[in-house]
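can u do me a favor
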């Protein structure tokens, strides 16, 4: 008799994953719900991995002149994250643009043939089309986010949805 639990365990451990974290989305979601807390990216990565094989973990940041994020980027790298950053753009009318939606989508599609699961750490509903595309290509897509700040269509499109709770936060 085959122990199905051991089979699932072995399949799980052989699963290759790539993790894409929308840092701005997670920062503002955490701030909105838990004003005195920040996401602990070391705990987040450990929680998401679950003994699976990490192919890549990329954290996407938008930087401003006023805030020095060098310490944060240093810690992310020490925890196993690659860091992609770009400056916040200020338009002539004074409005700002600073998101990584296209960058995350391009990177996720580019790596999708090399992994079994793509993990998206964001609640942004703009990623619904990406999730649907990756699933159509045969890739499992997990979404990890604060449920209260996550678009219903993103939750519905994911292969699996995992709400983030206070256990992966750290106090300021």
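np, heres the sequence
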């Amino acid at each position: 008799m085959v122990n199905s639990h051991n089979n699932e365990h072995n399949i799980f451990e052989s699963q290759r994953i790539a993790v894409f974290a929308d840092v701005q989305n997670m920062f503002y979601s955490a701030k909105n719900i838990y004003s005195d807390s920040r996401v602990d990216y070391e705990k987040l990565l450990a929680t998401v991995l679950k003994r699976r094989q990490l192919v890549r973990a990329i954290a996407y940041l938008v930087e401003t002149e006023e805030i020095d994020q060098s310490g944060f980027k240093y810690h992310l790298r020490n925890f196993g994250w690659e860091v992609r950053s770009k400056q916040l753009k200020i338009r002539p009318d004074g409005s700002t643009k600073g998101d990584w939606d296209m960058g995350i989508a391009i990177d996720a599609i580019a790596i999708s043939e090399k992994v079994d699961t793509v993990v998206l750490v964001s609640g942004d509903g703009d990623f619904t089309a990406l999730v649907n595309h990756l699933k159509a290509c045969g890739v499992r897509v997990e979404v990890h986010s604060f449920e209260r700040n996550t678009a219903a269509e993103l939750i519905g499109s994911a292969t699996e949805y995992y709400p983030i709770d206070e256990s992966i936060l750290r106090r300021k």
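The chain has one domain: 16-170. hope that helps!!
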